[in-house]
Amino acid sequence: MGIPLGVEDYRRLARRRLPRIVFDYIEGGADDESGLARNRHALDALLLDPARLTDVSVRKQAISLGGKPADAPLVIAPMGLNGACRPDGDVALARAAARAGIPFTLSTASNVALEDVARRAGGRLWFQLYVVHREHARALAADYEALVLTTDVTVNGRRERDLRNGFAVPFRLTPRIVLDASLHPAWTVRQLRHGLPTLPNVEAGPGGDASVQAALLQRRMDAGFCWDDFAALRDAWPRRLYVKGVLNARDAARCMALGADGVIASNHGGRQLADLPAPVDVLPGIRAAIGEATLMVDSGFRNGRDVVKALARGANAVMLGRAVLYGLAARGEAGVDDVLAMFKADIDRTLALIGCPDVALLGARLHG
C-alpha cells in the first residue's frame, strides 16, 4: 500500500500490523454487530445542503469548548488498552491531540498512569471515569480539566470476536495467539521490549486495590450507581463534568438539571448493545432538551464530512475513537498526527464546498 489517503487506508494498515486478537478488540462490536452498521448508515444517510455564491475564501473550524479554544471541533475519545496497539499509546494520542489543539480524554483503563500522561504529554487533558470505584482525586491532583463519566457500561457487552479469540488482560498466551504474534514480528518485538499492557490507574500493589482492578478487567462496574450518586459526584468534582452514553432527551435534561456541563451522545461505538439508536440520529432531540449547553457525539465517525453533518445536527464537537487508533497502530504517533490532519483538512474542504465560512453557521446545512 502507498501513502495512506484516508482513514480506511489506515484501517487496512492497522489490520496488517496487529495480531488478529488486538485488531478484533478494536474493530469489534456487540452482539451481531448490527450497531456498527447502523452508526455508519445514519451518517451516510445525511446529506449536506450547499449555499452557492457565498464568500468562503476564509473558513473557520476553531471553536470554544469547555471554556477554552480548540483548533477544531474534535476530541480524542476515551479508549482503554491503547498500549495493545503501541506501547505508550496513551501518551502518543495525548501528544498528538496537544499538537492538533484539541482535548484528549484518558480512560480509566489506560495503560499509562494518569499522572505520567499529564507529565509527559501536556495539552488539554480530560479523564474518563468508569464506575468501578468512586475515586477521582488523582485526576484533580494531576490537573485534568474535565471529568467524563461513562454511564453505559453497567455490565460488559457481549463481543463475540473477543469471546472467540479469548481476549483478556493480561493476555493469555495460547498456542493460537503465539502463532499470530509470530506473524506480526514488529508488534511482538515492541510489546516484549516494553512489556505487555497493564492497568496502572487501578492496579493492585502498594496503594492499589486488587478488587477494583479485578472489577475493571471483568467489566463488573458499579451497577448501583444512580442519579443520587451522580449528584454527589457533581458536588465533589469542582471542574467541568460531562456525561457520556446519553441517548435521549429525558436523560440529557436530567443531567443538566443536576449540574452537568454537557453530555456526550454515544452508544459506545456499538460495543455494548447492538439495538440502540445511532447517536447522530438523537442529536436534535438532545439539543432541544439542553439548550446551549455543550453537546458532543461519537460512534462511527470516519471523516470530516461526518463531523460537519454532526455539527449541523446540533453537536458542538465530535469524539474520535477507532479512527485515531488505526493511525496509532499503523504508524504510531505520526499516524495519529496524520489522521487528525486528515479530519481537519476534510472539515475545511467540506465547509468550502457547501458555502459555509464557519462551523458555527452549520445549523441549517442539511438537506431535507
UniProtKB/TrEMBL annotation:
Cofactor or coenzyme needed: FMN
PROSITE patterns: FMN_HYDROXY_ACID_DH_1, FMN_HYDROXY_ACID_DH_2
Keyword Flavoprotein on entry: yes
Source taxon at top rank: Bacteria
Keyword Cell division found: no
Cross-referenced InterPro entries: Aldolase_TIM, Alpha-hydoxy_acid_DH_FMN, FMN-dep_DH, FMN_HAD, FMN_hydac_DH_AS
SUPFAM superfamilies: FMN-linked oxidoreductases
Record domain FMN hydroxy acid dehydrogenase: where: 1-368
Keywords: Flavoprotein, FMN, Oxidoreductase
A Pfam family: FMN_dh
Similarity comment: Belongs to the FMN-dependent alpha-hydroxy acid dehydrogenase family.
Protein name (Swiss-Prot/TrEMBL): Alpha-hydroxy-acid oxidizing protein
Protein source organism: Cupriavidus basilensis
